[in-house]
Amino acid sequence: MTTDEVTWDVRGPVAVVTIDRQHRRNAIDGRTAEALAGALDRFEADEALRVMVLTGAGEAFCAGADLTAIDTLAPRAAGPDGPLGFTRRTASKPTIAAIDGWAVAGGLELALWCDLRVCSPRSKFGCLERRWGVPLIDGGTWRLPRIVGMGRALDLVLTGRTVGAAEALAMGLVTSVVDAPLAAAVELAEQLAAYPQETMLSDRASVYDGWGLSREEALALEMQYGLAVVEVGRSGAQRFAAGAGRGGASAP
User: Fold this and answer.
1) Pure H helices in 59-120
2) Does an H or E element contain 151, and which?
3) Tens digit of pLDDT for each residue in 32-71?
């Protein structure tokens, strides 16, 4: 399901999902959360779509939960998806956040949900819910330490301070800072979509599923997943041996 608050745009193998509640800096109410969950369902169901880009309209990515409509989110808190749409789920295919402006509170948690984050120089990040006594319940306490490390995560969670784009890049919170983040995110998504999918998705799953396992367990899982797609790798190696992709050129 999509609504006026969440728009859907297909660009070849890329789905662009846009939060559009500009009068609330794209803060999310219950209707918007339902639409985000529906957009993820739509992305997952379409095999032709290989990467999802999540972005916000206007001058913000997302300001988090709409505190003026918090009662509309309450029924989702105990559900399987998460209050802000899909934050307790993990997409089976790559996701990229294109951030231009504010990505704070639950909006930061939505950005953390994505595999990669591209932002503009004017973007701002922070756990601003700290000042209102609102807890992080959309995955931020699990994802943030794994992306920026425990020390930096505790700094952001405890102080609720605002971080600019340059500091976000330095701490690894974002992967790049560009003038046109949506265009850059779509270009990156197209690059990911052009790779052999089976092995890329297998490696991605190994990164997520191996986190927290012992070294021996994680390496065994990596081998298990790798063996399941080894024929794809063998085919690629044969193309390389035949001369494809030499000198850094993209393989056909």
Assistant:
1) 106-113
2) helix 150-159
3) 999 999 999 999 999 999 999 999 999 999 999 999 998 8
Distance between CA atoms of 186 and 115, rounded to whole angstroms? 14
Q: Of residues 5, 44, 59, 129, which has the active-site annotation?
A: 129
CA-to-CA dists, residue 106 to 31, 34, 158, 178, angstroms: 16, 15, 15, 23
Between CA 177 and CA 167 the distance in angstroms is 11
pTM attached to this predicted model:
0.91
| pLDDT at 252 (0 to 100) | 46
Strand order in the sheet with 51-56: 6-11, 14-19, 51-56, 95-99, 116-119, 176-177
* Pairing of the two strands 116-119 and 163-164: unpaired
- Determine whether 129 is an active site residue: yes
Amino acid identity, residue 238?
A: Q
Catalytic residue among 59, 109, 190, 222: 109
> CB-based contacts of 48: which residues, under 8 Å, 6+ apart?
13
Q: Where are the beta strands (DSSP E) in the chain?
A: 6-11, 14-19, 51-56, 60-62, 95-99, 102-104, 116-119, 124-126, 163-164, 176-177
Max CA-CA distance within the chain? 62
∠ CA(60), CA(64), CA(70), 5° rounding? 135
| CB-based burial label for 145 (10 Å; 0-12, 13-18, 19+) | middle
Q: Mind listing the pLDDT tens digit for each residue in 158-207?
A: 999 999 999 999 999 999 999 999 999 999 999 999 999 999 999 999 99
